[in-house]
Recover the amino acids of this structure.
C-alpha cells in the first residue's frame, strides 16, 4: 500500500510532464471501444478527427466481448482511479451508475446554458438515459433496440405473415418446423443464458402487458405479469418452439444459429442485420426484420439498447476528451457510422437522411421501434437488479424453478436491493 | 541383557526442569532474535495483516460505489443483511458441497495417480510430465476447456455418450449435472497437485520397509494399508490443507463453465464476493462476505493443524 | 530350523553377471558368513535367498524345498536389514508383532512370544516406544527381536552392524553370537568386515567378483588361505606379499634375501623349482631377531601400539609390515634384521595367485 502511494506520485509526475508538453505539442486520447461494435469503423471516424485536429492523437483500446465483461474491466480501471483511459463507451444501462460513482465528468460546463437544447436533438430516450439529476453525464454514441428477425423465404413459402403476437409466433413456428422436417431448424431463438440479454428477455412480455418494474425509483413489481412473462418463454421451450438448451444461449449464439440457417425467428439487436447480410451468411437476402410481437391484447415493446460516450473523471485530458466526444456524438459521425457500420442513429433525422436510407433501407422501419423502445430500469444498483432478473430467467428456462417460484424469488431479491 | 540400559540414549524430556523458552530470555539473544524477525514481520504486516484489517474494517461500513454516498460506519448491518440473503446461503452451501465432494475426490484420484507414477517405469519423465500438465494449466483454461467438453451440442462428452448409445445430457441446463460437471473438472484439475505432494511423500518411504513387510508376510494390500498409507499421513494432511482452502475459494472453474448457472445453482461464495465487489461495487457487503470466507478458511486450517499436532 | 543349499546360483542384470554359479551347502544350525568387498555379490546372494531378488539360474533350497519361485513370505525366513527397516509409525511391540499378526497367530500367543524375545534382547522396557525414540543399538536389537519372534527356519543378516559405531559394533556382535548359541537357528550373515566374519562364523564364505574364493572355518581361511585375495582379506594388519622365485629349494626375493622352503608350506620343492611366486607372510608371524630365518631390510615407519609394535620395512621393491614385541623400537632408516618362521609362510603362484600346495 506504500507502493500504491509511490505509484501515485510517479503517475502524477508523469502526468504533469505530459500536460506540460501537451500545451505545446499534442494530446493523446485513449478510447475504450466495445469490440462488438465495429472498432475498425470507429477508427476511421477517429482518423477524420485527427486530420482536423493535428494536435490530438487517438488510440483505441478494446477488451471483452460482452457488455458484462467490458463493464468488469472498466469497473476495475475506475476503482483503481487509473488515468490511462480518457474516453469510454458505455452500455446504455451504465451512465447512471458511473455518474453515481463519480467516474464520469458531466458535460454541463462545456455545454453551458445550451445543455437542454443540445440534448433535445437526440431521441428522447437517449437524452433521458444520459441525464442524471439534471447533469449530462454522457453523450449517446448510437441507438439500438431489439427486433424480430425472421426467415422471409420460409414464411413466404408457407404463406405466413410476420407474427403480431407471441401466440401467433408459436403457431407459425410449429407449422413451419413441422412441415420443413429439418431437425436442425429451431422455431425461435432468444437469450436464455444468464447475461444482460436475458433481462430484456424477461422485460419484453412484461412491458408488453403494460407493466413497469421501477417507477419513480421505487419497485413496482407485478408478480402476475412476471409469472406470465416467465411462463411465456418456458412454454416455448416445453412446446419445442425453442430448443431445450436455450438456457445456454447468449446473444451472439442466437445470431450465429440464425446466420447458419437453423432458426426461423430470432430476437436480437440491430447489429445482427449487418452480419446476416455478410458474405459468410447462409441467410443473405432471406431475412426480414420487424418489431417484436406483443402479448395477446398488449402493446408491442422492445428493449432500448445503444451505447454512450463518457469521459473518465480520472482523465488528464478532460477538456480535449469532451471536445472529442462531442464530435463522436454529432449527427455527422452518426450518419457516418450508420452508413459504414449499420449502427442505428441516436438522432431522429438521420434515419431519413437520403444517404442513410440508401445504404441501410430497413432503418426507415427501425426508427419507430427505437422510438417506442423502453429503457431498462434506471437505478445506481442496476447491476444487482440485472443479476436478479437474468439468473431467474436462466433458472426457469433450465427448469430449475417454476415460473411461479421464479417470480416469487425475483420479487424477494428485488425488494432487498431496491429497499 | 545388562548392556541394554547403558545404551539407552533417550533421556526423559525436560529433566533439568528448565523450559525451552528460557533461552530466549537472555537479553542479547532476544534482541537479536527480534531484529532478525523484524523484516519478515514488517513484510507480513504490510501484505497480510494490513489488507486483512482493512477488509474487516470495510465490512463494518456502508460502502457502495454506485450509491455515490461516502463510506459510513454501519456496524453489523452488512452481516445482518447476509443472514437473510438467500443467495449468500445458497453460494455458501454450494461452496461447502464442492469442498466436500472435490477434496476427497481429488485425494483419491491423486493417491491413485501418485501410486501409478511411483511404479518403476523405465522412463519416468513422460509420467511425471503428464501429471504436471493439469496442475500447470491455469484454472480458467481448465474451466473453458471443460465447458466445451460438456457443451450439450458440440461437446465431446455427449458425443461419446451418444456413441455408447446413451442420450446426451444438457449439462449446464440442470443444476445437478452442471454441478457434477464442475466437480469433475475441479477433481481433474486438482488431483495432480495432490498426486505431486503424495508422490514426494511416497519417495521418502524406504524400499527396505516394503522388503521387510514382504519377508514378514504382508501382501500388497496389507503393505499399502500398514505401511504406505500411515507413512503418507503427513503428506496427505498437507495436501488436504492446501486443497481444502483452495476448494473453499473455488472461483475460476464454475465462473468459466457456468457463471453460476442455471440460476445461481452453481455459484460459489467466492463468485458472489466477486460479483458484489466488482459488478455491484458494494464493497461493504462484499467485504463482509469475504470476512466470512476468511473465517471459514481459518477454521478449517485450525482443524487440520490440530489433527497434525495430535498425531505428534 | 533347516539347511540351505545354493546350486549353480546365477544372477545377472542384462549382460552384467553379478553372481556366477555359486555352489554352497549350509548345514542346519550353522552360522555362515558371506564376506567380501562391495560388489562381490554377497548381498545379492542373500537377497535371492530371501526372495527379494529373482534368481537368474540355478537353484536355492531351504531344507528340502526348492524356493526359487516362492515369495519371501512363504520361505519361512526372517531378515535383519542394514538400515533395520523398522516400521517408523509402529511401536516396538507392533513392529515385533506385525509378522505374527499377518500370519494369523492368535493374540494370546503373540504376547508371550514378544515378551520372551524382548527379555532375551533386553528391550522389554522399550516395547511402547517408536523407533525414532531409540538409539542405534536399540533399533538393532528391535530388528533382531522382530526376526526372532517369527521362529523361522533361517535368519538372514544383511550387514546389520554397519550403521553402528565401533564400540557398539563389538557389543552387538557378541550378542548375535550369544543369540545363535541360545536359539541355534541357521544364520546366514553378510558383511564386508573380516573381523565380524572371523568372530561370528562357523564357516566363512569369501566371495570375489561373484564367485566363491574360499569356504572354510575361520581357522582354515586364516591359516591356509586359498589365494592372495583371501590371504590379504582375512587378518589384520593384512598379510604381506613379496615377489620371489623358487631357487634351489629356497624362495629368493627380488631384493636379494631368501628363505629356505620347508615341508609345511612348500610340498615337494623340486616340483616348484624355478617358478615365480608371491610370498605371503602375516605381520604376526615375524620372529624376534636371531630366531627363525633372518630377513633384512630398511626400516621405514615404526608404529608403537602398546601391546605390539608395527614395523614397516623395505624388502627389495616391497614394503612389509611386521608385528613384533612392544620393546622392539628400531629407528627409521636403520637396517632391520628380523626372523621369519619358514613353516608359516604362504606361497602363491605369481600368475594365478592361487596357493601352491
Amino acid at each position: 500500500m506504500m507502493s500504491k502511494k509511490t505509484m501515485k506520485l510517479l503517475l502524477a509526475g508523469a502526468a504533469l510532464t505530459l500536460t506540460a508538453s501537451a500545451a505545446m505539442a499534442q494530446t493523446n486520447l485513449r478510447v475504450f471501444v466495445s469490440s462488438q461494435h465495429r472498432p475498425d469503423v470507429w477508427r476511421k471516424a477517429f482518423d477524420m478527427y485527427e486530420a482536423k485536429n493535428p494536435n490530438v492523437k487517438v488510440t483505441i483500446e478494446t477488451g471483452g466481448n460482452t457488455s458484462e465483461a467490458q463493464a468488469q474491466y472498466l469497473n476495475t480501471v475506475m476503482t483503481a482511479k487509473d488515468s490511462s483511459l480518457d474516453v469510454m463507451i458505455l452500455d446504455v444501462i451504465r451512465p447512471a451508475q458511473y455518474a453515481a460513482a463519480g467516474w464520469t465528468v458531466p458535460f454541463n460546463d462545456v455545454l453551458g446554458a445550451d445543455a437542454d437544447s443540445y440534448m433535445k436533438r437526440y431521441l428522447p430516450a437517449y437524452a433521458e438515459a444520459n441525464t442524471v439529476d439534471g447533469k449530462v453525464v454522457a453523450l449517446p454514441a448510437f441507438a439500438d433496440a431489439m427486433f424480430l428477425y425472421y426467415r422471409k423465404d420460409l414464411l413466404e413459402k408457407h404463406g405466413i405473415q410476420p407474427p403480431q403476437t407471441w401466440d401467433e409466433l408459436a403457431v407459425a413456428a410449429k407449422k413451419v418446423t413441422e412441415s420443413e422436417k429439418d431437425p436442425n431448424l429451431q422455431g425461435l431463438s432468444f437469450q436464455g443464458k444468464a447475461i444482460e440479454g436475458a433481462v430484456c428477455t424477461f422485460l419484453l412480455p412484461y412491458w408488453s402487458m403494460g407493466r413497469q418494474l421501477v417507477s419513480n425509483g421505487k419497485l413496482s413489481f407485478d408478480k402476475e405479469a412476471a409469472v406470465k412473462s416467465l411462463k411465456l418463454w418456458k412454454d416455448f421451450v416445453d412446446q419445442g418452439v425453442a430448443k431445450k438448451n436455450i438456457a445456454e444461449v447468449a446473444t451472439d449464439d442466437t445470431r450465429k444459429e440464425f446466420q447458419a440457417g437453423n432458426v426461423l425467428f430470432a430476437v436480437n439487436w440491430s447489429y445482427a442485420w449487418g452480419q446476416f447480410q455478410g458474405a459468410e451468411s447462409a441467410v443473405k437476402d432471406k431475412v426480414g426484420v420487424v418489431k417484436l410481437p406483443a402479448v395477446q391484447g398488449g402493446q408491442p415493446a422492445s428493449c432500448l439498447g445503444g451505447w454512450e460516450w463518457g469521459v473518465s473523471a480520472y482523465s488528464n485530458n478532460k477538456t480535449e476528451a469532451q471536445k472529442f466526444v462531442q464530435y463522436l456524438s454529432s449527427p455527422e459521425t452518426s450518419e457516418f457510422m450508420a452508413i459504414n457500420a449499420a449502427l442505428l442513429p441516436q438522432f431522429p433525422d438521420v434515419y431519413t437522411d437520403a444517404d442513410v436510407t440508401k445504404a441501410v433501407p430497413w432503418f426507415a422501419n427501425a426508427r419507430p421501434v427505437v422510438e417506442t423502445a423502453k429503457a431498462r430500469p434506471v437505478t445506481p444498483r442496476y447491476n444487482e437488479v440485472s443479476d436478479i432478473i437474468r439468473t431467474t430467467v436462466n433458472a426457469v428456462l433450465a427448469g430449475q424453478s417454476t415460473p411461479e417460484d421464479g417470480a416469487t424469488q425475483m420479487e424477494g431479491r428485488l425488494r432487498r436491493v431496491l429497499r | 541383557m545388562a548392556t541394554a540400559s547403558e545404551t539407552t540414549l533417550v533421556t526423559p524430556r525436560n529433566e533439568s526442569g528448565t523450559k525451552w523458552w528460557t533461552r530466549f530470555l537472555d537479553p542479547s539473544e532476544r534482541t537479536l532474535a527480534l531484529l532478525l524477525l523484524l523484516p519478515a514481520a514488517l513484510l507480513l504486516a504490510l501484505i497480510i495483516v494490513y489488507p486483512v484489517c482493512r477488509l474487516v474494517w470495510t465490512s463494518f461500513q456502508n460502502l457502495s460505489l454506485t450509491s455515490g454516498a461516502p463510506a459510513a460506519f454501519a456496524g453489523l448491518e452488512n452481516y445482518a443483511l447476509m443472514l437473510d440473503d438467500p443467495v449468500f446461503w445458497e453460494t455458501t452451501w454450494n461452496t461447502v458441497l464442492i469442498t466436500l465432494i472435490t477434496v476427497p475426490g481429488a485425494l483419491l484420484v491423486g493417491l491413485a495417480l501418485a501410486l501409478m507414477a511411483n511404479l518403476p517405469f523405465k522412463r519416468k519423465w513422460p509420467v511425471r510430465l503428464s501429471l504436471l500438465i493439469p496442475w500447470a494449466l491455469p484454472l480458467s483454461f481448465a474451466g473453458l476447456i471443460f465447458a466445451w467438453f460438456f457443451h450439450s451440442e458440440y461437446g465431446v462428452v455427449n458425443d461419446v455418450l451418444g456413441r455408447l448409445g446413451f442420450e446426451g445430457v444438457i449439462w449446464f441446463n440442470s443444476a445437478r449435472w452442471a454441478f457434477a460437471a464442475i466437480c469433475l473438472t475441479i477433481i481433474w484439475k486438482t488431483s495432480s497437485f495432490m498426486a505431486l505432494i503424495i508422490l514426494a511423500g511416497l519417495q521418502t518411504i524406504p524400499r527396505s520397509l516394503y522388503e521387510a513387510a514382504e519377508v514378514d508376510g504382508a501382501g500388497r494390500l496389507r503393505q499399502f494399508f500398514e505401511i504406505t498409507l500411515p507413512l503418507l499421513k503427513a503428506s496427505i494432511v498437507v495436501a488436504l490443507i492446501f486443497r481444502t482452502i483452495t476448494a473453499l475459494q473455488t472461483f475460476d472453474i464454475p465462473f468459466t463453465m457456468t457463471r453460476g448457472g442455471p440460476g445461481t445453482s452453481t455459484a460459489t461464495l467466492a463468485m458472489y464476493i466477486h460479483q458484489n465487489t466488482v459488478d455491484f461495487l458494494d464493497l461493504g457487503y462484499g467485504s463482509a462476505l469475504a470476512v466470512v470466507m476468511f473465517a471459514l478458511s481459518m477454521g478449517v486450517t485450525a482443524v487440520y493443524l490440530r489433527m497434525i499436532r495430535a498425531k505428534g | 530350523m533347516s539347511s540351505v543349499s545354493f546350486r549353480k546360483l546365477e544372477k545377472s542384470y542384462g549382460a552384467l553377471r553379478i553372481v556366477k554359479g555359486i555352489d554352497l551347502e549350509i548345514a542346519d544350525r550353522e552360522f555362515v558368513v558371506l564376506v567380501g568387498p562391495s560388489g562381490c555379490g554377497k548381498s545379492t546372494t542373500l537377497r535371492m535367498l530371501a526372495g527379494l531378488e529373482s534368481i537368474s539360474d540355478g537353484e536355492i533350497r531351504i531344507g528340502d524345498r526348492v524356493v526359487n519361485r516362492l515369495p519371501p513370505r512363504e520361505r519361512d525366513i526372517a531378515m535383519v536389514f542394514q538400515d533395520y527397516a523398522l516400521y517408523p509409525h509402529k511401536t516396538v511391540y507392533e513392529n515385533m508383532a506385525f509378522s505374527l499378526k499377518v500370519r494369523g497367530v492368535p493374540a494370546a500367543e503373540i504376547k508371550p512370544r514378544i515378551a520372551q524375545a524382548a527379555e532375551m534382547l533386553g528391550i522389554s522396557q522399550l516395547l511402547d516406544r517408536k523407533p525414532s525414540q531409540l538409539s542405534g543399538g536399540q533399533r538393532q536389537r528391535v530388528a533382531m527381536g522382530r526376526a526372532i519372534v517369527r521362529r523361522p527356519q533361517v535368519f538372514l543378516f544383511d550387514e546389520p552392524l554397519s550403521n553402528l559405531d565401533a564400540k557398539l559394533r563389538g557389543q552387538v556382535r557378541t550378542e548375535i553370537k550369544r543369540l545363535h548359541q541360545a536359539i541355534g537357528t541357521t544364520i546366514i550373515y553378510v558383511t564386508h568386515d573380516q573381523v565380524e566374519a572371523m568372530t561370528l562364523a562357523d564357516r566363512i564364505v569369501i566371495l570375489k567378483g561373484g564367485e566363491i574364493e574360499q569356504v572354510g572355518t575361520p581357522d582354515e581361511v586364516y591359516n591356509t588361505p586359498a589365494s592372495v585375495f583371501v590371504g590379504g582379506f582375512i587378518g589384520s594388519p593384512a598379510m604381506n606379499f613379496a615377489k620371489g622365485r623358487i631357487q634351489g629349494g629356497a624362495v629368493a626375493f627380488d631384493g636379494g634375501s631368501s628363505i629356505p622352503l620347508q615341508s609345511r608350506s612348500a610340498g615337494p620343492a623340486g616340483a616348484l623349482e624355478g617358478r615365480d611366486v608371491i610370498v605371503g607372510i602375516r605381520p604376526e608371524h615375524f620372529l624376534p631377531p636371531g630366531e627363525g630365518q633372518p630377513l633384512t631390510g630398511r626400516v621405514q615407519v615404526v608404529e608403537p601400539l602398546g601391546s605390539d609394535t608395527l614395523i614397516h620395512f623395505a624388502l627389495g621393491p616391497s614394503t612389509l609390515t611386521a608385528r613384533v614385541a612392544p620393546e622392539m623400537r628400531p629407528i627409521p632408516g636403520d637396517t632391520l634384521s628380523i626372523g621369519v618362521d619358514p613353516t608359516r609362510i604362504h606361497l602363491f603362484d605369481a600368475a594365478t595367485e592361487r596357493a601352491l600346495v
In short: The mean pLDDT of chain B is 86.
